[in-house]
Amino acid sequence: MTARPSERKTGRPSTAAHRAAIHPSPRERLVRKVYARIDAAAGRELERLLREEEVAASCRRGCSSCCGQHIQTNPAEAHALGSYIRRTFSARQISDLRGRTRQWHAWHGIRRNGGSRPDPTAGPPLSGYEPFCPLLVGRACSAYPVRPVICRTYFVSSDPCDCRPAHDDRPADREPMVMASVLRATQPLSRPLRADIEAQGLDFCRSILLLPHWLAIEMGWEFEAEL
Fold it and tell me: CA–CA separation, 38 vs 33, rounded Å?
């Protein structure tokens, strides 16, 4: 077989070819199957709300305030995220994601320490930093196909600006009008993820962490040890 041009100099497959060779694991396939069912159920409920109650979701691409909220995820979802990132992101994209995730961890550590950094010279610079989900790029999710359940089922009928980021401590004028029936319609469909996690010998509730924590664990980035 003739070697590709990118292989002739090094004798190794190109980075793109290497990523393409990473096939989804059985666990990732399970997660994505659950996601497909949740998306379908959410879509049906959104259509029913519009048809029967004339209530429409106001969520649109670019209204990313919810990406600054506390996004919870679990090890099964984190595995799917990590696999997708390693398979589809370039080395530069992974490096940039690592930098954003490290910034979030530094910010979170300061919040946990009452607003001060133990060593002001340690960790990444945070001047002007806004602690949104590290996966947010250009006000869009860079891992949209494998975004967690909470991101797939959170819809509002109010102004998206009412979905204030968690770091915004100003008094809120209005609370977002969450479309709770979408949550109720999709919640039972997440049970296979819980079963998968418990089959690994983990306590499901204790396994739930904020997304940047699980992302760092899954990708092998040890930020908290640095800060």
Answer: 9
